[in-house]
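Extended Data, panel c. Modelled sequence:
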Amino acid sequence: MKQTYAPQMLKLLNLAGFGMAAWEPTSHNPEVPFIYKTVSVPFFDRNLKVLAQKLRPTCLVAHVRGVISDPSAKVNIQNVHPFQYKGFKLAMAHNGDLADMDKMKFHLLEYIKPEIAQKIEGTTDSEWIYALLMSQMEDPTKDLELDEILPALESTLKIIKQVRKKLGIAVASWVNLFICDGNDLVATRFTFDFGCYADKIDELELGLKDMSLWYTLGQDYGWHENEWKLVGSAKNANSVIVASEPLSKDITNWTEVPEYSVLYVTSEGDYRQVKIAELDI
């Protein structure tokens, strides 16, 4: 809720809806997440409060959507994150914006499988990135290992870079992605043409200059020292939170992900480990 109206590192109100994908092992068909999306804001949503009291997921991807203050912005349920096509294992959310996406769309179609392109319902650049990513998988309906997800992710970014170059697009564009299947988590902190802006630099662009990615590890998420946070040793952590910025006032347990990097969470029994690698794009 606080990320909707009071983000600390991004000067943008996120009032264009929110969504979540929650994997709960005790539920029916546990490999399929519970999906909830709405164009309302979370602090007015009674359903969210009830669901939060009832659901006990072991994995959760949540996203609040922000758009520019312009009548051209399309606020509808089809554009709310996270995206997950029926039968596909991976869900994805995106923080950022691809400049001149309307010019890029039909050039990207060359790299999107027709059967996946037909599933695109919204207009946002984020869903097109998701469709492009799924098209780099041999079979997105099967359980995928990290060694299958990471090459597909790099291929997706390389294709976008190639299309941008072809069209002469050299405006800063942020592609922070959160990709998850309920077991594996992959996140990127990546910017195309960082520092390059259009002729007019507005407040939104200035706010996006420092789009970041953070994570924290621990054993006990709860009410500690007058705030909700994850505490405990990272060495034997059984939980990890990855977010666009630290979600607690106490940021001593949070670590910033370097730019142009990919973060992935691995599991060894009940323990979680975070690994970070440079993106070769």
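The longest helix spans residues 146-167. This feature is highlighted in the accompanying rendering.
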